[in-house]
Amino acid sequence: MSEEKPRFTVEEVDSVTPAPRARVEDVPVPVERKRDYLDGFLAEKPQDIDPGQPGGSIYDGVIDALKEIFDPEIPVNIYDLGLIYGVDVSPEASVSVTMTLTTPHCPVAESMPGEVEMRVAAVPGVRDAEVNLVWDPPWDMAKMSDEAKLELGML
Q1: Fewer beta carbons below 10 Å: N end or C end of the chain?
Q2: What is the pLDDT of residue 28?
Q3: Is residue 21 in some structural domain?
């Protein structure tokens, strides 16, 4: 076998002079920063949103309140679980929530609608709240959000 010559050589040194650091004074011409075209755009809220429509303060507050109510048997909030079928906000700020339960024999069938009504009525700007409990269409797992399915290990 023949001996190969190394393709690189190693040079050992005691110290190296550091490279010069760039300084702002070293720039010959002042650099003008262009205005960011998104400046203020992302922070600005849409102008003419009705508070009772999606994106409005009352509607979003109701959705946030619903996301704080958890099913006692399943560690997922009732909104992501798909138990909320609709949220309607009238121009007078009356809120009507249409919801169901996982089954008519649910242990919280008597207390859950009352809790939903209390939480929704506590949202700032809501005049009064009404909860309509429906069984048609029946709830099924297809109504769950992806977050809920992930939480339950179904994805």
Answers
A1: N
A2: 61
A3: no
- The encoded tokens of residue 128 equal 């009064």
pLDDT value of residue 36: 67
Cis-peptide into 124, omega within 30 deg: no
**Residues lower than pLDDT 50 in the chain:** none
The confidence score (pLDDT) of residue 109 equals: 83
d(CA 77, CA 99): 13
**What separation in angstroms does the CA of 51 have from each of 4, 12, 21, 45, 98?**
79, 71, 55, 12, 19
Which structure tokens are listed for 9? 């050589």
Outline where the chain has alpha helix (H): 57-66, 112-121, 146-151
Q: How far apart are CA 95 and CA 117, in angstroms?
A: 9
| CATH classification at residue 74 | 3.30.300.130
Residue 131: which domain range? 57-152
By CB neighbour count within 10 A (0-12 exposed, 13-18 middle, 19+ buried), where does 105 fall? exposed
Tokens coding 153: 């290990």
Nearest to 65 by CA among 75, 52, 56, 78: 78
Q: In angstroms, what CA-CA distances link 71 with 16, 64, 113, 116, 133?
A: 66, 15, 12, 11, 15
